[in-house]
Amino acid sequence: MSQPSSITLDMCRQLDAEDSLAKLRDKFAFSSKGNIHFDANSIGAMPIDVPDRIQRLMTECWRDQSRRSWTTEDWAEKPRILGGDISHMIGAGANDVVVCDNTTINLFKLLSYAWKIRNSGTVILTEAHNFPTDMHVLQGFMQLLKALKVDGQIRIAEDRAQILDMLDNDVAVLYLTHVDYRSSERWDMADINKKAKSVDALTLWDLSQSAGVLDVDLGGTGADFAVGCGYKYMCGGPGGPAFLYLNPSHQKTAWPTIAGWMGHAKWNKFLSDFEPAGGASSHLTGTPSVIANEVFAASAEIWRGVTRKAVATKHKSLTDMTIKLIEQECGPLGAAVISPKNYDERGGHVAFRHDGAGPVSEALVDNGLILSFRYPDSIRLGLGPLYHNHEDVWNAVKIIKDVLTTEKWRDQKYEKVAI
Amino acid sequence: MSQPSSITLDMCRQLDAEDSLAKLRDKFAFSSKGNIHFDANSIGAMPIDVPDRIQRLMTECWRDQSRRSWTTEDWAEKPRILGGDISHMIGAGANDVVVCDNTTINLFKLLSYAWKIRNSGTVILTEAHNFPTDMHVLQGFMQLLKALKVDGQIRIAEDRAQILDMLDNDVAVLYLTHVDYRSSERWDMADINKKAKSVDALTLWDLSQSAGVLDVDLGGTGADFAVGCGYKYMCGGPGGPAFLYLNPSHQKTAWPTIAGWMGHAKWNKFLSDFEPAGGASSHLTGTPSVIANEVFAASAEIWRGVTRKAVATKHKSLTDMTIKLIEQECGPLGAAVISPKNYDERGGHVAFRHDGAGPVSEALVDNGLILSFRYPDSIRLGLGPLYHNHEDVWNAVKIIKDVLTTEKWRDQKYEKVAI
Q1: A239 and A339 belong to one structural domain
Q2: First-to-last CA distance in chain A?
Q3: Which of A249, A269, A304 finishes a domain?
Q4: What's the confidence (pLDDT) of residue A375?
Q5: What is the tens place of the pLDDT at every residue in B16-51?
Q6: How far apart are CA B297 and CA A293, in angstroms?
Q7: What is the pTM of this model?
Q8: Using the beta-carbon criterion (under 8 Å), do A135 and B274 form an inter-chain contact?
Q9: Res A411: pLDDT
Q10: Are A260 and A165 in the same domain?
Q11: Cα–Cα 20 to 30 A to B299, which of A182, A199, B80, B105?
Q12: Is residue B64 part of a domain?
């Protein structure tokens, strides 16, 4: 499908041959149907040893050992261990991250915590296109304040460009998702954190669309709080546990909002009076999801062996290639990349728009390319640097080109919205 | 081991022959090491089809279907479906229960919700021996109120007998665990609910030690709120999801405290403004734990086929037998049952005390009987009516008698506290 001076399959293969992470591909399982999965932004690939790990957990642990596995398998420590395993991927210290609960709950925990220890102001500032659940948590928290007759306001930037203008001394917490889940636009975290500090506002970042792909540096950029999803680029399994981060400077300031026995300094002593464990651990709640943690552990083992610089470098190469190939091969067919061309402004996935995006995405799935559609007209390709290579991108774009050329999508039924 | 006019193995076998739930035993997997597990109160047995279900989820769904499984497998509806599946076991309507998150988080959600919609008073009343995480949630909530400069007090009954005396018009919420996790003492839920109503207090019950064994009737007794653990008698797997219940009369009163996209009336439309789904569903939060839900689904399928009356009848028979046999065979050896003899005052497990309880429990484990120790001197046997039978009880007590008679426990090392 190449033309003179354009990208070729050989160029893709050459990049793959030079890829320092190439061998990690063997650590993942791929569709037995031969489909190519480019929905890393919805659900990452499965580490190949997950089925065996889970089989062992079910039989040797649950069935044979039963409750004794709490001791022999260190089940209660897993949230801390797994947090340490992935901490370098977001520029955090090993003790500053725990893996637990889901993103929504972790957002609630840290938004309410940030509120409690805020420096000034009663405004929580966010943007209109923040992910729905992030908005809901914020709205729910405001309803709680209202019920308690406590003053608090939401301020919303309708346009991304407004956010810095709206950041003033009235802002207690700046509450953003690092990367837009539709367009893949990325905030400049360092710049935002700096400006937030200058007006004494605390920052809370949702890293669901950036952790595991970008060079996220929470510590280096002075972020106050962060949460993120474990099941997308982190490859932690469907509905897998999320994570949360607290800057060390905020860890000892107040009680966690949801105090529970796993956040107790001596959880296994069954003491009635709560004593925070300290650090991120204080924000653990109830009994951890043991099975989900075991799945997450398979990916954590892989993350331990990589640096976030190497991951981001490969991710840049993959997404640059994706954008160029879509423009080269599918631009004349009505596909227009809407994600930023400049890598520093881009997140984990590449989105393009097409008039028939809904039915096109379904036709792509039928032709062996799994990606995701976002209403009204965008299609997203999520690239996982641990297991995708440039030849995958070539093959994916080939399928897109074929579907658009042959107009296979014209009679396609589609679901208006899919997860 | 029998004596004249005492319980015999034949009597146990006779009861098993008459057991209407006997055939359910085939639906569970038992230790391949031949151990007898009597820790249903810590972790229930594994439904036999769990490994195959999970294997399928990993390969056919995660690996092959990836994000498409959200649609084909109804992953997002599972919290509601599973809630409906177990609702009859706690006397609730099918739409009044959802399976989600963990017990601690669900306690926080409903305690704060109850607070928001309280009728009067600013006191939350509980008892000193409530389970640690229940106490921590309460303490954490009070810390939140304090940080927000909102008035609120904790009132604690040091002795169970005091609770009704301490229940007056100042009490906003009465916050109790239905069954004591150590002694197995049970509150009279109907009586307590009635008295709470008479002073306009709302009730929040933790059913972790009673759901799946006792005849819990939330609706019939007028309970306001309840939560419970999924991994004990419910057999939902290690660290499995918990559940929550709201009386229909309270379901539309206020927003959930933790508003999230899975609690949205149209969650799959990705709308920014939260609109509560209504009912218990409003209290769903983020992406459900898909793998944990699939494990829970295996047990939910079994629960669908039984009535709580049949379960409670068998449980009474099993625990009556356990108490009598321990007294008969081990009483002279220093074992003293501390759980109530009257079934209506007793919960899911039977506890006995012994001077050497710590090392005795470890010696029992070494001799093939898995149960749990609670500091300082009690040993608990958790009985699961779906899979235990009377002959199991006979065999368990035989091991206890042997360990006590031979004093095998004297040189035993033990962990002071075990989960």
Answers
A1: no
A2: 32
A3: A304
A4: 85
A5: 999 999 999 999 999 998 999 999 999 999 999 999
A6: 18
A7: 0.97
A8: yes
A9: 84
A10: yes
A11: B105
A12: no
**CATH classification at residue B181:** 3.40.640.10
What does DSSP say about strands A242-246 and A225-228: parallel, antiparallel, or unpaired? Answer: antiparallel
Burial label for B266, CB within 10 Å (0-12, 13-18, 19+), is exposed
Q: Of B280, B304, B328, which residue constitutes the final position of a domain?
A: B304
Residues B250 and B315 in one domain: no
Same domain, A81 and A34: no
Does A144 lie in the same domain as A207? yes
Contacts A272 to B, Cβ<8 Å: 128, 130, 132, 135
- Is B416 a residue whose pLDDT tops 70? no
The answer to whether position A268 is within a domain reads yes
**Which two structure tokens, joined as six digits, stand for B77?**
């509806």
Which amino acid makes up residue B123? V
Number of structural domains, chain A? 2
Residues of chain A with pLDDT under 50: none
Alpha-carbon span B309 to A222, nearest angstrom: 58
Residue with tokens 């064994």: B213
Q: Which residues of A touch B102 (CB under 8 A)?
A: 101, 260, 285-289
The pLDDT assigned to B4 comes to 52
CA angle B388, B394, B396 (to 5 degrees): 75
Residue B280: per-residue pLDDT: 96
ipTM score for this prediction: 0.96
- The whole-number pLDDT of residue B408 equals 82
User: Is there a single domain that holds both residue A95 and residue A114?
Assistant: yes
Query: What does the alpha-carbon distance between residue B232 and residue A199 come to, in Å, rounded to a whole number?
Result: 49
Say whether both A42 and A98 belong to one domain.
no
Residue B115 domain boundaries: 74-304
